[in-house]
Structure formats: C-alpha cells, structure tokens
Amino acid sequence: MKYFDLHCDTITECYLKKAELFDNELHWSLKRAQAYNPLAQVFAIWIPDEYRGESAVRRFEDVYKTFIFQMTKNSDKISFCHNAAELKSALNKNKTAALLSIEGGAALGGKIENLDKAYNMGVRIMTLTWNGRCEIGDGVMVKHAKGLTEFGVEVVRRMEQLGMIVDVSHLSEKGFWNVAEVTSKPFIASHSNSQKICSHKRNLTDEQFIEIKKRGGIVGINLYRGFLRDGGKAFIKDVKNHIEHFLSLGGENVLALGGDLDGSDLPYDMKGVEDISKIYDELLKSFSEQIVNALFFDNAYRFFENNL
After folding, report:
1. Which of 53, 57, 182, 271 is the residue whose CA sits 20 to 30 A from 94?
2. 0.70 cut: is pTM over it?
3. Spatial separation of the C-alpha atoms in residues 174 and 193, rounded to whole Å
4. CATH number of the domain at 3-307, please?
5. Could you tell me whether strands 219-221 and 165-167 are parallel, antiparallel, or unpaired per DSSP bridges?
6. Nearest one of 193, 137, 183 to 159, comparing CA atoms
7. Contact status, residue 39 vs residue 92, Cβ threshold 8 Å
8. What residue ranges are annotated as transmembrane (predicted)?
9. Can you name the residues that pair with 5 across neighbouring β-strands?
10. Where are the domains of the chain?
C-alpha cells in the first residue's frame, strides 16, 4: 500500500520524550511505517503558543537538531528531501522520503530573515499560525480573530518567492482569505477536515475547500477525534464521512492524508501508523481503487512533484 502523509508531530515528540524515530511507543515509528511502500512523511516542528520571539526561534532550532540527528542515524532507511528530484530518488531507492515543515510561524520570531534561514535548513512547508496569535496573524482559536498582519503578508509573499509551501491549517478564516488574496501559487491545508461534517472551527468550510481546489492545492484529512465528529466519539467510519463530503465537492484530485499522528487523539479503533491500512480497506468498500490510491499517495506526490 502506498502512503504519503502531510503532517505528523512525531519528531517533536521524539525531542520532548527523547524517543528514537525508528522504534518507539509513539503513534508513528519508522519501523512500523515501513510496512507501507512507497512511503513519504512530512515531519512538523511544532511551536506551541507559549513560545514567542527568541524562545520560539530556539524551540525550532532545538527540535530541528533532533530531526537532523534522527535523519542521519537512520539514513539507510530514510532520506531528508529538499526538492522533487530528491523525493523521487528516495522513493526509487525504497527509502522513506522525509519532508520538513514548521507548525506555527512564531518560529520566525517576527524576523523575515529567519524565514530564509529556515528554507536553507530544509523547511519546505510552513503552517502560518498555530491556534493562537503570532507575529504572522491570528489562529482559528483567537476570539474575534483577525487575519494576516503586515508582517504575515510579507512572509507569505517571501514564501512564494523561495518556493516554500503556504499551509493554512490552524489559520483564522480571515487569514485564509488574506492568503487567497495575496498569493498566486497553490497553497495547502495539511491537516484539516470538513466543517460541514464536524462543526469545529479548525475544520474547513466548503468555500475554503473549493478555493484550495481552484488554486491547485491539497487538503490532508486529519485523524484527530475532535475534528472528525462533534463530541469526539470518532471511529474510522467518521474519517470516511469527511472524505465522502469533500469528494461531493469535486475533491478527487485534492484529497490527501494529514493524520496529525503524535499530535492528536486518534479514532478509537486506531492505535497508530500500523492502523492506517484499516482506513484504506474501509474506503475501498465505497470508493474505487483509483480514488483511494489518489487520496493515500498520488495527489500528494503530484502536488510536490509540481510545486517543490
């Protein structure tokens, strides 16, 4: 089974718990994930909202050191990819392809030069905010949330110049439409579900999903219980409901996976990455193999092939 996932917090958990990437008790381990081939994973460096300014920059740098250490230690099995050619090469060698993202633009500490620095360190995707307010703009959980700041607009435009992918998961709705206004390239929601199916404000409205589709972007389905079903009593069948709705909006070339492993509470009938295949099998009961494979791998691979 092919598997390409747009968002996990595993490397941050490795940093916090001093765990090994290859074999651990987290949601995602390289050992268990290697059951899928080809395999590609975007690893996020998460910046919690209590970090701002220089403390946020240091947090990013500390987790980055863990990421590089684990990439080096497991270099026979996983390859840190910076562009489409490296992504293709890693998969052709039967290695896991690793991409690096930032979850929370507070990592820049409010300085545009830190964006260039992050790009040079290999970051290719950035979620502009986490839930709260940072120098770039407001997250979706901010009361009376506003959109992007002037600095945020500068960051988004510089990301496009660099070739870094803008990620609108966690961003306020006003911020989302600001991104749509000031960008010309496709952007993504790496781990966001449908607000029509689950009313949590972290999920996307139909209008937002259609805008991402129109722009040639992708949306990663999040496995967090609280984003799958109102009340949070979610199972794999609830994942299917979000996919079905997005497909009804013409999302067959838009949908991907952004499981949020190690950053969320998974559906009650899942323990970790080893159970991703259960979603695949469940979807095959209702959708064609072509659509399921597109969701699990092909759409994400094509997007990065064209935009990385």
Report:
1. 271
2. yes
3. 18
4. 3.20.20.140
5. unpaired
6. 183
7. no
8. none
9. 41, 257
10. 3-307
